[in-house]
Amino acid sequence: MSSIGGAVGAARTGSSSLQLYIFTQLPHGLPPWTSLDGLRGGSLVRAVQRAAVHPWRDARFWRQAAATVAETRPADVSGRDLAQTCLAFKRIEFASPILAKYCEKYMDERRQALNTFEIAAVLAYFVAASTGKPDAQDFVRALADEACIEWRLKETVPWVAWRMLVTASANAGVAHQLLFTTASPHLCKSVQFMTGRDAVDVCDAYATLGFKHHALLDEIAKFLPSMGLSDSEVRMLQQFFDRLDVDAPLLHRIRELHSYDKIGTRWR
User: Fold this and answer.
1) Residue 4: which domain range?
2) Which of 53, 55, 42, 51 shows the shortest CA–CA distance to 83?
3) Are residues 228 and 245 in the same domain?
4) pLDDT per residue over 112-140, tens digit each?
5) Residue 111 per-residue DSSP state
6) Do 176 and 211 lie in a common domain?
7) CB 204 within 8 A of CB 238
8) Do 204 and 126 have their domain in common?
9) What are the pLDDT digits (tens) for 12-70?
10) Total domains, the chain
11) Alpha helices (H) in 93-195, listed in sequence order
12) Which residues sit opposite 58 in a β-bridge?
């Protein structure tokens, strides 16, 4: 291996031996930053974003990132930087109690400084990192209330923000009717941009909390053929539609076609 200088020693125990190596080069494929020493603000955000895309699954790196953010006063962290940091942590699936606690502190002090997308990103990570936390639902309700404030409805909000909000609410077990009522028209207008995974996540949220929005479900059913659904996504969507007592003939047809494809493949 080109990155290994060579064995410098061996210790034998019974029939097995342990060889020690010195690296003359860094291993290939490292992200741009593997240490966060001295990074703050935008530099820190870019480091964690690139590490999440890589993905760099070094727990020490992510613990250091969370601790670095938590050491910063909320007033010195922009809503965008916190949101992008949370999205990076969520992408890498690293649940940090330190970062989750900081999100609570930050939102208590500065929630009105964030736009709706930033609120959604923070909430999505908080819920993912706080599973089983007894007081998490209070925080979820507070941010759901914030997202539905009348003056915020004048914002131009990306539809993915509404997806994150309803899925986070459902994952936390918070049946926030106003949030779902507010989000549904926005999601309905954006179904054409959804992937199969998006449709599954949205329908799961509505089925979990028992919210039935006929226009949204009809629109999702209409666009199913263009979503490139996998077998598992077809099965899950069928379950969610059944739980909401909504008939989707096109979904039945897609499931039949998937079954026929399997049979045909078996006989080739």
Assistant:
1) 1-30
2) 42
3) yes
4) 999 999 999 999 999 999 976 778 999 99
5) G
6) no
7) no
8) no
9) 545 556 555 454 555 555 666 567 888 888 999 999 999 999 888 899 999 999 999 99
10) 3
11) 97-110, 116-129, 136-147, 159-171, 177-189
12) none
